[in-house]
Amino acid sequence: MLYVRQLTLGPMKNFVYLVGAQGARETAVIDPAWDVPAIFAAAAADGRDITAAVVSHHHFDHINGLPDLLAKADLPVYAQKAEVDFADALKEHGRAVRPVGPGDVVKVGPLELKLIHTPGHTPGSQCVYCGGALVSGDTVFVNACGRCDLPGGDPEQMFDSLHRVLGGLPGETKLYPGHDYGDVPVSSLERERQQNPYFQLGAVGEFLKYRMRPRR
């Protein structure tokens, strides 16, 4: 019984998520960015209280709402330790940022959020798995995956994240990506395994050649 509110905000078609248990008020915001008043308004309209934040990674378009969020509410912000160690953009928020490790679980009311470390886009990229859903940040998109040529990116780690780390999750898992880049806003892991080219490339050499080909 999962509550998910998907908000499209900002010029880069970012998805910001509100997640929690149905029937509870406690809610986590995932990747708070661009329009914090709109995020709080959406939560209030649904009778929800934002009590925690999770960031998939440190890129500006996913965390630029943190200053406004923390000015409005005293709440923890969960990020992978590898990302906190790498990114000054997270360190500047001090003790509000709570470093977590691969597979750590955060409770938001009765709902457990499993924080899955999926490096490749950045050293500490993470996905959030809860209630049969995966909020994937910039690790997996609909029919695509995140770039690996930015600072801290690693295509071999991305291949491992897609094929090994996420490989054990059920195919029926709903996929909620970090951007509205696909033909649908919500997919499933089974759909992506069948038609996403980055899942189709089963050998790391093929993946590296395809992922790192020159961008036009």
What is the CATH architecture term?
4-Layer Sandwich
The count of β-strands is 14
Return Rg in Å: 16 Å
Q: In sequence order, what are the helices and strands, one letter per element?
A: EEEHEHHEHHEEEEEEEHEEHHH
Segments where pLDDT lies below 50 for 5+ residues? none
Q: Tell me, what is the CATH class?
A: Alpha Beta
CATH superfamily: Ribonuclease Z/Hydroxyacylglutathione hydrolase-like
Characterize the biggest β-sheet.
Answer: 6 strands, mixed
What is the terminal-to-terminal distance? 43 Å
Helix proportion: 25-40%
**What strand order characterises the main sheet?**
1-2-3-4-5-6
**What is the helix tally?**
9
Question: What does this 3D model show about the protein?
Answer:
With 216 residues, the chain is an alpha/beta fold. The chain has a single domain, classed as Metallo-beta-lactamase, Chain A (4-Layer Sandwich). 28% of the residues lie in helices and 29% in strands. It contains 9 helices and 14 strands. Strand 7 and strand 8 form a beta hairpin. The protein is globular and about 45 Å long.
Observed structural traits:
single chain; Metallo-beta-lactamase, Chain A; 6-stranded mixed beta sheet; alpha/beta; 216 residues
Question: SSE layout and pairings?
Answer:
Elements lengths: L1 E8 L4 E8 L4 E5 L5 H10 L3 E6 L5 H4 L2 H7 L4 E4 H6 L1 H4 L5 E4 L4 E4 L2 E7 L8 E5 L2 E3 L4 E2 L2 E2 L9 H11 L8 E3 L10 E2 H7 L1 H4 L3 H8 L5
Parallel strand pairs: 3-4, 4-5, 5-6, 10-13
Antiparallel strand pairs: 1-2, 2-3, 7-8, 8-9, 9-10, 11-12, 13-14
